[in-house]
Structure formats: structure tokens, C-alpha cells
């Protein structure tokens, strides 16, 4: 009987480890010449759009990835595959926004109504595996809320970055929509 319990526990442990490795996307990745975003602590972050694993709903993200204004400018100029989601409120968006963004007017993405505004662009975001950069007024709480919401909706955390310092820190007037 004791031997059967040990075998059973070993089997459960082996299945748990295997499932963990499969669900965490353990494997190799490659980059396509794009600049590497950084994480909250400044270390390089994975930028593999092919990795389709995502956080389980309710799992709090603690290590957000950031794109600098220079990295985003370079990606736009190279026409790199990229989705840019702007969550500024409509008044701020109309005053200044980066060319080619997907507007949501959802800032700060806390209420169900604000989340519903982001939900409207989910089909477009899910239709590709392109990296996604979230633009908010200052690159802080609203962007983090958006990344968390998108992850909870099944978008891979590995695809999501925040524009460092947000729209307020964007220094390239030539790339603003007129």
C-alpha cells in the first residue's frame, strides 16, 4: 500500500512538472532584428510574438515590459509588424497622438465601461501575433491596467509592452498625427 502511494505521488509530480513546462512555453525563441524592450527592472524582455502562452485570468503581472520612444520610432520607421494601442481619453487623443495608433479612449482602464472600450479592439489584436505597444498619457497606471486586461483576455503577455513615459514623453513631432 505504501509503495502504491509513493508511485502515485511520483506520477502526480511528474504530470505537474510536464504540464507546467508545456503551459509556460518552455522552448527556444528567436528575434527578427527588432530592438528588445526592457522590463520594469531594466533587463531585456522577451519579444517573441510567436509565444502564445498568456497569463491566467486574475494572475497579476508584476514585471511589465517597456518600449522606449526611440525603439518605437525605429519600429515605425522600419514598418515593423506592430500594433500600437492608444488609451488616452478622446480630448487628449485629438490634441496629440502617434500616427497609426488604434484609439480606444479607455484611460485609465479601471471600470467595466473603460474595459469595454479596449474590448472593442480585441478582435484586431487577436487576429495577429504582432507585438503590441500600449500608449497612455504617462506610461504608468493606465497602461499597466490595459496590459493586465489584455492578458486576462488571452493576449500573450510576451506580446505586450508599454511606451515608456507615455504620450507625454514622446519627443518625435514628425510622427504625430496632424
UniProtKB/TrEMBL annotation:
Coiled coil: none annotated. The lineage of its organism: Bacteria, Bacillati, Bacillota, Clostridia, Eubacteriales. InterPro entries: Rhodanese-like_dom (IPR001763), Rhodanese-like_dom_sf (IPR036873). Keywords: Signal. Residues 27-53 are annotated as: Disordered. This is Rhodanese domain-containing protein. It comes from Desulfosporosinus metallidurans. It comes from the Bacteria. Residues 78-176 form the Rhodanese domain. Residues 1-24 form the signal peptide.
Amino acid at each position: 500500500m505504501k509503495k502504491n502511494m509513493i508511485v502515485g505521488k511520483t506520477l502526480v509530480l511528474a504530470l505537474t512538472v510536464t504540464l507546467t513546462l508545456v503551459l509556460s512555453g518552455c522552448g527556444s525563441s528567436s528575434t527578427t532584428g527588432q530592438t528588445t524592450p526592457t522590463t520594469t527592472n531594466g533587463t531585456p524582455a522577451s519579444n517573441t510574438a510567436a509565444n502564445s502562452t498568456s497569463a491566467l485570468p486574475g494572475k497579476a503581472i508584476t514585471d511589465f515590459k517597456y518600449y522606449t520612444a526611440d525603439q518605437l520610432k525605429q519600429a515605425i520607421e522600419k514598418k515593423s509588424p506592430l500594433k500600437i494601442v492608444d488609451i488616452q481619453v478622446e480630448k487628449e487623443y485629438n490634441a496629440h497622438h502617434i500616427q497609426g495608433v488604434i484609439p480606444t479612449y479607455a484611460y485609465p482602464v479601471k471600470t467595466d465601461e473603460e474595459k469595454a472600450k479596449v474590448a472593442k479592439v480585441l478582435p484586431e489584436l487577436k487576429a495577429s501575433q504582432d507585438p503590441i505597444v500600449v500608449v497612455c498619457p504617462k506610461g504608468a497606471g493606465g497602461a499597466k491596467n490595459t496590459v493586465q486586461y489584455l492578458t486576462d483576455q488571452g493576449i500573450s503577455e510576451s506580446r505586450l509592452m508599454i511606451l515608456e513615459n507615455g504620450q507625454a514623453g514622446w519627443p518625435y513631432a514628425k510622427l504625430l498625427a496632424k
